[in-house]
Design brief:
single chain, about 35% strand, Immunoglobulin-like, mainly beta, eight-stranded antiparallel β-sheet, globular, four-stranded antiparallel β-sheet
């Protein structure tokens, strides 16, 4: 364990002693646990907590379809810190991942995005709208027919924007700390139109590391903290494969589908 973390999350108020060798390392699943949320299909979730749904791999993720192949929702592993002064950042591989069972949500017409975009291999982006001031409340993962799904559950005002692309040398915004996850490639999802939490809100106190469990392509997901109106989510993948990105409303969500090889 390093004696001092690198200037992690400097723009968010975190102060650390600089150590450029520090990196966010890989973690593995705890024996006997399945951390895949097969119902993370982009369905409406409760605004107070992320909630899985029962949608399958249809052209409209807001329409109810059959369930997928496994049954838990992942709350993730917390590591690092966003607001307090830190003298040490724990190795994520030493922090156990927790899982929670949650009821399935119901489909809602207001979350229908219309025709889905095609899968892309290059950078995709869209600006936020409606004076967006959003918070990422949680991350859900789901194994679907032909792709792995990553859902960012959001709250606040406006509509989320995004910039999503593969990055060869991912690093945390503000500090430049290398992001070293369990996977051969990293898809960086920059959620745009993001706000800092209200005083007393601990949403971004720590980095959030979620294990991919039994997903086919996604191996780990790391959520960072706000920096200049955006939050970066690092999606580690076993293969460099096409992906698609879209938003759903009521409640607000950002959905990233990563194709199976």
């Amino acid at each position: 364990m390093l004696a001092a973390a690198a200037l992690a999350l400097a723009a968010c108020g975190t102060q650390t002693e600089e150590d450029p060798s520090l990196s966010i390392g890989p973690t593995g699943p705890t024996d006997g646990e399945d951390r895949t949320d097969p119902d993370a299909t982009g369905e409406p979730a409760a605004t107070t907590a992320p909630s899985p749904t029962t949608s399958g791999p249809t052209t409209d993720p807001a329409a109810t379809a059959g369930p997928s192949t496994s049954g838990t929702s992942t709350s993730g592993t917390s590591t690092g810190t966003g607001d307090a002064t830190v003298t040490d950042v724990p190795d994520p591989s030493e922090v156990p991942t927790t899982t929670t069972e949650e009821p399935a949500g119901e489909a809602g017409a207001e979350g229908d995005p219309g025709p889905l975009p095609g899968f892309a291999e290059e950078t995709v982006q869209q600006d936020p709208t409606g004076q967006a001031q959003l918070i990422i409340d949680g991350i859900r993962l789901g194994l679907q027919d032909g792709f792995d799904r990553v859902v960012l559950d959001l709250s606040g005002t406006g509509e989320v924007g995004w910039r999503v692309e593969y990055v060869d040398a991912p690093a945390l915004d503000g500090s430049g700390i290398p992001v070293d996850l369990a996977g051969d490639h990293v898809l960086v999802v920059s959620a745009l139109g993001m706000a800092y939490p209200e005083p007393g809100d601990t949403t971004y106190d720590e980095l959030l590391l979620v294990d991919g469990g039994d997903l086919t392509t996604v191996s780990e997901v790391l959520r960072a903290v706000p920096f200049e109106g955006q939050v970066q989510v690092y999606v580690a993948t076993r293969d460099r494969v096409p992906f698609r990105v879209f938003r759903l409303g009521d409640p607000e969500r950002l959905v990233v589908d990563v194709q199976h090889p």
